[in-house]
Amino acid sequence: MSNRVDPNLIRELQEYGLKDASKCYNCGNCTAICDLSTPENPFPRKMVRYVQLGQKEKILKSPEPWLCYYCGDCSVRCPREADPGETMMVLRRYLTSLYDWTGFSKRFYTSEKFETMAVGAIGAFVGLGMIIWAIANWSMINWQHADVSSVWSTEGIEIADLVMAGILSFFLLTNLYRCVKLVLGDYFKKIPLKMYYDEMKYLLVQFATQKQFDGCKTKGNRARWIAHLAIMTGYASVFLLVVVFVNGLPFMGINFLKFQRGWESMGHVREISIFNPLRLIGYYSFFALMYGTSYVIWSRLKKTQPQFKNSHGTDWMFLILLQATAVTGILINLGHIFDLPFLTYAIYVIHMMVAIPMLVLEVPFAKWAHLAYRPVVLMLMKVKARYIAENENAEGAAELAPEVAV
């Protein structure tokens, strides 16, 4: 591995929110008190040292930033107030920008103005397009009953959703591919595909439960883990509604959205049960997102916990878009239940103006991407350890992931 020094690294990381890493004198207290750190993976000490020495290439290939869940113990116990936990958070932002081949992540993390303008521009484009379409089809709009499909056709919405999902998936998966190559290094070409397949269950469990988050035994961490899990599952529910139920099931001969809209067009909106499967998923998404984001927003405003004392612009953008998506989504549902056409259509436009920028920008390029990189890196460590244990030596496997060494 290269030992080339980048003297401008600290200055570059300051653009991502780095403040106090230069205060660290490498005592090791942060590593000693971390529940997730091991002798083989001594973070955050090692990563802070890399920052101080300008070891950009080593940071780029390091999995340690993704092994940290930022409980804050290290920052509280640091005798120099170097805030190592925040340094690890900064490195996650930095790595996200380096994995991204488009350069958007770097612009989002280093310029709040650029991120705000990008979100606003896409939102305005979506809203303007929907309004123009509505005006062009004004005579077809159902003003007697709330029927979104009378304004924007079901088929058109499905096509737009598929295009959006395709764009989102392309950018996220290509960035994940770069992450995998960098983290595995020379092992990328050595490890057979079957090993990845064998550990796919582990990846899904880590993604769905954020299980390792609960490994931090810091007081109050359980509540933060629950809020984190609520945000993740609530957001995943939104994705499930859009991509699977709206677009996936029609190819299997099932389309719940067309069924629901068909009833709406016949004036039977109030006859749709509130226990409709789509509505139940939507209700869960709303309450989960509102609980999770409210907890985090309140914590960031109070700043009583170390992990919430430093808020980056992307943190706020992510939370605001999530809450706006949840609130407008439930208002659309209420508009259908109470059969209020104009209100339903207006809020639907606002909902799409918020949800689409969040999906196409925040998911592959900003804060949400962390939810994808972390479980993937955890799986890579497990796969890498297994490969070394089976093909090289068990001691080498322990250096990578002692909890899965054989």
Notes on the structure:
- The radius of gyration is 23 Å and the shape is elongated.
- The chain starts with 8 loop residues before the first helix and ends in a 6-residue tail after the last helix.
- The chain is 67% helix and 0% strand.
- It has helices spanning 9-14, 29-33, 45-53, 56-60, 64-67, 73-77, 84-99, 104-110, 112-136, 154-184, 193-198, 200-209, 221-248, 256-265, 277-302, 313-337, 341-365, 370-391, 394-400.
- It contains 19 helices and no strands.
- It has 2 domains: 9-99, no CATH class; 104-378.
- By secondary structure, it is mostly helical.
Question: Gist?
Answer:
This protein is mainly α and 406 residues long. The protein has helices spanning 9-14, 29-33, 45-53, 56-60, 64-67, 73-77, 84-99, 104-110, 112-136, 154-184, 193-198, 200-209, 221-248, 256-265, 277-302, 313-337, 341-365, 370-391, 394-400. The chain has two domains: 9-99, no CATH class; 104-378.
